[in-house]
Predict the structure.
Amino acid sequence: MNKTKRLLFPVLVIFLMSLMTVSYGQQASAAPIKLRYSSALPPRHSVSLDQKWWGKEVEKRSNGRIVVEVYQAAELYKHSEVPDAVITGAVDMGLGSLGEAWPGRNPFFEVTQLWFLIRSSEQVEGDLDTVRNIVFPLFQKLGVKALHFWAFGEGGIWSRRKVSSAADVKGMRIRAPTQGDWVCIKALGGTAAQIPAGEMYDALTKGAIDGIRTGFESGFNRKLYEPAKYLSGPTQFTLYFAFMNPKVWNEMPKDLQDIVMEVSRETEARNFETSKKGDDRAKAKLKDLLDFHVFTTQEVGQWISVMQPVYDAWMEKATKAGSGAQAKQLYDLLKK
């Protein structure tokens, strides 16, 4: 019996080693997971720079098991097209504004573009965990896996005539990039115009519009200070977010999911800082390039008073859509 065991033992060892070799070979030869990541923001924007950082960090920390291909400046899809592209699996990941393409799916997402409701990063930065817990489950219901927030930054009104008070908007034709902007402009007696970002400069130059509502850094990069005589703000602080196709996410091994989320949290914190620096650089230069009016505390209070019916209407729409509890929770957080 002992002699039989001694004869079988080497055979067993060889068999086990062969299994391990096959298993290792399969792992070594497994193709990396490729993530195609679509954004419509220009490459120079602080969000775009940190988007590339996210991709490189995920590749590095996964030891090449994940490969990220970043596409910017609408190379694959426009802002309005990215959500459907991710939901259908035409692309693996997307970057977009909460308030741009999502209010049509749930009016709750108008919140980040309602003027003077979120005016700076300080209002949300210290409560990002709470904001994520309110917002991200709503995206899951709409068919995407939300990863983290992006700080697009502060924005205002670039115009051919000065805007200091809410009354100044009356009669103006202003480019509205989101449903929230559209609602605000109409409530103030202006006319909201839908114009692609790439056509804003020409439209303002030719007088087709009187103003543009967009970010400080974004507007500076697009040289809107040339056709605009005035800039007023901030009217709001815009949040973007990164999201993934849920099937792609669920098929990813747990250890790689952990890496993606680890890098996502670090990217979020990093981007809030780079966004502030980007806004500060843009604002410092813009003050020398056009008449830049920064709203006073008293003026902000007057704007908020005028905008209150807009906030109430948003809350009502969110409630009808089944997101009233989330809307109230976020509104109370922002108002405090």
About this structure: The chain has twelve helices and nine strands. The chain has a mean pLDDT of 92. Residues 38 and 77 are 7 Å apart (CA to CA).
